[in-house]
């Protein structure tokens, strides 16, 4: 009686291939140093062995895909930290584009950088989409409270038609959006706001009479200090 020999999955698959090519069970037993009974059992269990082989290949592909995306995630996260350290605003499409760009550089194919991938990337790395605080003005709250009490007394002797309020707003036309992807551990602060702007002033009376808005640009020649 021949001794039973351990045959791994690849060897059993090879036996099935050779059998399909016409080799007999006796010849296969000689080639793999096992008994014909063991060969016949492998042939009989062909469907189970092939299914096991397909499952094994699928697990291998999944593992390779996982490792591939780990490399991409690490590279994208490193880039993300670098640009945020420079206070550069980052949005979802920028991250997806960079993922594809880095995949090409790393020689990794079939990286779609889909919206689903972006969502997972954000969750894995604690990245959120938030408004960033710009340069805050220093306002003393006590001054506001003081004027709220004083103003009605100062205006008591005037008609509504004679009371005007002038205020201004600025349009920073070179400024970027104030929202960005940031890590939750990061302070939500933006960078310096570009100073180039249009300033528009509005003047309205308490009787709702409006003056034409005044647009303020800049001097054509630099003023001497």
UniProtKB/TrEMBL annotation:
SUPFAM superfamilies per record: Homeodomain-like (SSF46689)
Residues of the DNA-binding region: 25-45
GO molecular function: DNA binding
Compartment annotation: Nucleus
InterPro entries reported for this sequence: CenT-Element_Derived, Homeodomain-like_sf, HTH_CenpB_DNA-bd_dom, HTH_Psq
Subcellular location, principal: nucleus
GO-annotated cellular components: nucleus
Keywords: DNA-binding, Nucleus
UniProt KW Nucleus keyword: yes
Every HTH CENPB-type domain range: 60-131
SMART domains assigned: CENPB (SM00674)
Domain spans labelled HTH psq-type: 1-49
PANTHER family per the UniProt record, alphabetical: PROTEIN PDC2, TRANSPOSON
The protein, known as: Tigger transposable element-derived protein 6
Organism in which the protein naturally occurs: Araneus ventricosus (Orbweaver spider)
GN (gene name): TIGD6_44
């Amino acid at each position: 009686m021949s001794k039973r020999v351990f045959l791994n999955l690849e060897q059993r698959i090879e036996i099935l291939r050779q059998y399909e090519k016409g080799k007999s069970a006796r010849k296969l037993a000689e080639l793999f140093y096992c008994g014909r009974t063991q060969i016949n059992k492998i042939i009989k269990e062909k469907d189970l062995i092939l299914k096991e082989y397909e499952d094994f290949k699928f697990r291998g592909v999944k593992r390779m895909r996982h490792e591939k995306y780990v490399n991409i995630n690490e590279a994208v996260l490193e880039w993300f930290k670098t640009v945020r350290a420079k206070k550069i605003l980052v949005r979802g499409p920028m991250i997806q584009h960079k993922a594809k760009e880095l995949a090409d550089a790393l020689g990794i194919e079939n990286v779609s950088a889909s919206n689903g991938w972006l969502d997972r990337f954000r969750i894995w790395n604690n990245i959120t989409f938030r408004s960033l605080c710009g340069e805050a003005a220093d306002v003393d709250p006590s001054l506001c409270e003081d004027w709220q009490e004083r103003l009605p007394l100062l205006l008591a002797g005037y008609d509504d038609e004679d009371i005007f309020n002038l205020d201004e707003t600025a349009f920073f036309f070179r400024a970027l959006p104030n929202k960005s992807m940031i890590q939750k551990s990061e302070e939500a602060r933006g960078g310096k706001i570009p100073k180039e702007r249009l300033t528009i002033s509005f003047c309205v009376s308490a009787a709702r009479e409006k003056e034409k808005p005044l647009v303020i640009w800049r001097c054509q020649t630099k003023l001497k200090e």
